Amino acid sequence: MTHRGYAGFQTCVGRCKLGLMSQTNAKLSRIFQQMADVLEVLGANRFKVIAFQKAARVLGELTDDVAGMDSKELRSIEGIGKGMADRIEEFAETGGLPEAIELFDKVPPGVVKMLDIPGLGPKTVSILWRDAGLEDMAQLTAALDTGELEELPGFGKKKIENIKKNLAFAEQAGKRAKIGEAMPLALWFVEQLKQLKQVKQIQYAGSLRRGKETIGDLDLLVAANEKDAGAIMDAFVGLEVVADVIARGETKSSIRTNEDSGGKSGVISGGGGMQVDLRVVPTASYGAALMYFTGSKEHNVRLRERAVSMGMKLNEWGLIKTDSEKVVAGKTEEEVFKALKLAWVPPELREDRGEVALAESSHKAGDAIAGPPLIEVSDIKAELHTHTTASDGMWSIEELALAAAERGFHTVAITDHSKGQVQANGLSDERLEKHIVAIRKVAEKLKGKIIVLAGSEVDILADGRLDYPDSLLKELDVVVASPHAALSQEPAKCTTRFLKAIESPYVTIMGHPTGRLIGRREGLSPDMGALFKAAAERGIAMEINANHWRLDLRDTHAKAAIAAGVKLAINTDAHRLANLDHLQYGVLTARRAGATKKNVVNCMTKAALAKWLKSTRT
Ligand code: DGT
Ligand code: CA
Ligand code: CA
Ligand code: ZN
Predict the structure, then answer these.
(1) Which pLDDT does position 154 carry in this prediction?
(2) Omega within 30 of 0 (cis) for the link into 296
(3) How far apart are CA 566 and CA 537, in angstroms?
């Protein structure tokens, strides 16, 4: 039983009509399960609780979409009575279920959150809330330490210890790693396990393979002979970074890395305390298992439905004919997709955002891969946002330019901070004038090796003005305009502010447009549609800042930007050497947005880039 996604689904009950067709079953199943839990916390009639539990289970397993059924069809489903059929119809028609919202309002949100903790069922939560008066996690944590809970019915020392443990675990599990922490950790594990002679194939799967900005846990998949699985598990749980073995099974194990796995292994930075799941499957199932464990769950549901409609079933073992149990495909992802009459879908697109339809039409057109080729790191030929020692960077202009040349780039822009960024040693008007001269000097020296452009990362002030006068901006080749302050401005004000900045005739790129820091700062929420429209008209680019703290624009924004005809820029915003490696995360974000190299200015040829830069000066 899972209780996850309460907050997310509450917004869904209210709003999300999009994706109704695809996910009605899953969403309603979750809603019904949560209704059952809340009813139980409230001490409702047992039969009512059971009816909701049953409906949740039935919907969770049903392959036909309830959204398309009339009430007669609904009631003919085993386990769905008239009351549930009515609720399903209402939800399918309106996209909401007011009864659920009303019900959830009866219980404090903090109490509903308690249901998320593994081992805390509705009965226990009910006692904690109604008998002990605990209303949120903080109160629960405090009460666990005082010993007062031992007085409650059914609460012994052991039970309290267990709750404590689960609470600590839930806190840890609730933390999602940034992709820049998870990726090096995953690559390290892959490297270690590859050395085992029993490992035939290995790959990281899950959200990391899909390139998501944050990662809950790592999912590693290995192909090997069945008899070798034990030895592989032994090696896995014995690795030096393992702090905790959560489960050790014959073909599946889960571990938690120690808090400082980076320090120990010497190659991993970050990712401490992450859960890592390893599964071993036979080679014949490797492709099907890779698909299954890459997800997303929603994408998998889509594919399973498609398999069923073709008289087959799809699971982690393979694609199997329903009547004869004959295995149709399973060894590689490509052959499974092909047998489903689909082109192979790049993992970054597997989010149930229209990729199955895309894969179908690509397959019909005879293409092996769904959609046009997505952008790759090797397509990037220019870096347009960097910092040197002149502001808060670690490198000189020349060191930076040479590192960019080393990467095979034809162009690099030096864009130090503007004067408003006092804490980052932003450049005053006079210092910028001198800096431009210094950049031109290095440019001259490195002629033939790399083009070095003079730029600035200019603050967009709270009222939309830029932090340098036009007379100075005019002298620059590249102006990245970014917000660094007034980052909790209300949306309408911020939209006006940014539109004003975009209208400046000297802006080339709008840098990290929301100013968010993942897991730390929400950032701004301007009307992105309005900004994209203005940016498209001006012909300027919107940045995907590749730093793993930012990834701003995020994937969904970047997708909307492309649809609006806006050019994207993928920049590392490098302050130090290691930052250049973040380029891959910016590219993954762009791939999740469906970007090709045509959408990204950093992929232009030397001449095309120069021409575009000029064209932004209107
Ligand atoms: P995360 O770890 O929260 O960042 O996200 P994922 O996508 O890596 O999720 P995870 O680790 O729970 O599971 C890995 C994949 O396994 C997931 O993307 C799809 C598949 N999977 C897991 N549980 C289910 C399930 O109940 N149904 C289906 N269809 N697929 C599942
Ligand atoms: Ca995962
Ligand atoms: Ca997992
Ligand atoms: Zn910057």
Answers:
(1) 84
(2) yes
(3) 8
Q: Residue 554 to residues 23, 110, 175, 514, 586: CA-CA distances in angstroms?
A: 23, 29, 19, 9, 9
35-74 residue pLDDT tens: 999 999 998 998 999 999 999 988 877 777 888 888 889 9
pTM higher than 0.70 for the full model?
A: yes
Tell which one of 22, 178, 207, 518 to mutate to probe ligand 1, the residue whose CB is within 8 A of the most ligand atoms. 207
**What's the structural domain count of the chain?**
5
pLDDT tens, residue by residue, 468-512: 999 999 999 999 999 999 998 999 999 999 999 999 999 999 999
Verify that 523 and 599 share a domain, yes or no: yes
Report the relative pairing of strands 318-321 and 312-315 from DSSP bridges.
Answer: antiparallel
Domain finish residue from 104, 127, 145: 104
Q: What is the pLDDT of residues 206-231, one digit of tens each?
A: 999 999 999 999 999 999 999 999 99
d(CA 212, CA 233): 27
Q: What share of the chain is helix, strand, coil (3-state, %, to 5)?
A: 50, 15, 35
Residue 206 CA: nearest ligand 1 atom is 8
Token representation of residue 427: 């450049």
- Between CA 183 and CA 138 the distance in angstroms is 33
In a domain, 502, yes or no: yes
Residue 382 CB partners (closer than 8 Å, separation 6+): 409, 410, 411, 412, 413, 601, 602, 604, 609
- Residue 2 lies inside a defined structural domain of this protein: no
Residue 1 lies in a domain: no
Together in a domain, 516 and 488: yes
How far apart (Å, rounded) are the C-alpha atoms in residues 317 and 324? 16
372 in any annotated domain: no
* Ligand 1 pocket mutation pick from 293, 299, 306 by most atoms within 8 angstroms of CB: 293
